[in-house]
Amino acid sequence: ALRSALPFALFQATIFLALGLHLPFWSLWLESKGLSLQQIGLLLAVAAWIRIAATPAIGQLADRWRHGRLLIPLLALTAAAGYGGFLTAEGLFLLLILQAATFSSFMPLIPLADARTLAAGRRFGFDYGRVRLWGSLTFILGSTGGGWLLGYSGLELLPWLLLGVMLVAAWLGLLLPSEPPAKGRRAGGMMSLLRNRRFLAVLLASALLQSSHALLYGFASLHWRAAGLGEGMIGALWTLGVLAEIVLFAGGPRLIRILGPRGLLLLGGAGGLIRWPLLAVTTDPLLLVPAQALHALTFGASHLGAMHLIALHAPPSLASTAQTLNAAVTGGIAMGGALYTAGWLFERLGGDAFYLMTFLSLSGLLVAAAFVQERR
Questions:
Q1: Buried b (16+ CB within 10 A) or exposed e, 296-312
Q2: Helices then strands, each counted (H, E), the chain
Q3: CB burial class (10 A; 0-12, 13-18, 19+) of residue 279?
């Protein structure tokens, strides 16, 4: 099981290293290009909206194409080329085109890796959460090391770093073992998933819980820097959140046995009712520490619960389609709308906009409590 898990852990580690570089500092890089807050919100939203069409289509291709395993390295190479384009790009229109092209390639890598990891875990007997935590560890390397390096060398280095990491991801993608064809009759495709009420309930709860992070992902770095925090401290705060997430993933098998995947969704929603009001009232690093530690619940518990529920309610022959559909709904429709709205809210309300993220966590909590089931 350990040998079988290693290539998946290495690939997860690489793509989340890229995410750790991108997520805390991309908005700062865009600001360094002279863009306004609303323009930054638009670019961030485009990255999320592109998942709506591109990601499920890529997932279906991965499930149906006999050479679907080649999609991961091809997408990573395309993302590397996109980051290379940002090195010389000028003007909002060209940045929008590059953002769409780069993230229609980069973003599907995460759900495709999740689908492959979950399937291989069932086949070889390793736990998804304990493989996924290596991605969280390298996210820390990206956010902390990236904060130090960019603070020393300047934000112009960021696209170069991302280009290099995605080239490594393309190579590692070639090393992932192939999955045997799913046994039995092939399921009816995406429409069969969209007619599955239990699957749809999981998608809705996951979308609400994860989109409550929109203001954090898009504008927390700007908010904290305006309050006088440096890049190193900002990176450390991001790191703290991911460390808490790692602890939860490491204990994932036990939590699943005790609470069940639905219970993890409920725990994630409850965490948001505490975290977002706390971020609204303070920029004191001592108080930001417990707020960021709650990332274990708002993201970690919600994500782990959703992954197990999606695998439960989707047939193996539609594993990639189900995961990419979740990425489209959660990271595209919900997160895209929330990010665009977050830019407008942050420009007018500043940190008080975090109060409105609490409503999304509460809504996800109620959906999970009322509609999510753990039976097929």
A1: bbbbbbbbbbbbbbbbe
A2: 19, 0
A3: buried
Token duo for residue 147: 């904060």
Whether the CA torsion 275, 355, 24, 305 is positive or negative: it is: positive
Residue scoring higher pLDDT (317 or 96): 96
CA–CA distance, 265 with 259 (Å, rounded to integer): 10
Q: Kindly provide the residue ranges of all beta strands, DSSP E only, lying in the chain, ordered along the sequence.
A: none
Report how far apart, in Å, the C-alpha atoms of 114 and of each of 51, 58, 107, 110, 328 are.
Answer: 16, 14, 12, 6, 14
- Under a CB-based contact definition with an 8 Å cutoff, are residues 290 and 278 in contact? yes
CA distance 224 to 75: 33
Instruction: Give the H/E segment covering residue 10.
Output: helix 2-32
Give pTM, 2 decimals: 0.77
Structure tokens at 252: 């994932």
Name which of 156, 170, 117, 132 is nearest 25 in CA terms: 156
Which pLDDT score is estimated for 113? 87
| Confidence (pLDDT) at 271 | 96
Which tokens sit at 191? Answer: 């429409």
Give the Cβ contact number of residue 93 at 10 Å: 9
d(CA 41, CA 47) in angstroms, rounded, equals 10
DSSP 142: I
Burial class (CB in 10 A: 0-12, 13-18, 19+), 39: middle
Ordered DSSP codes for 272-313 = HHHHHHHHHH---HHHHHHHHHTHIIIIIIHHHHHHHHHHHH
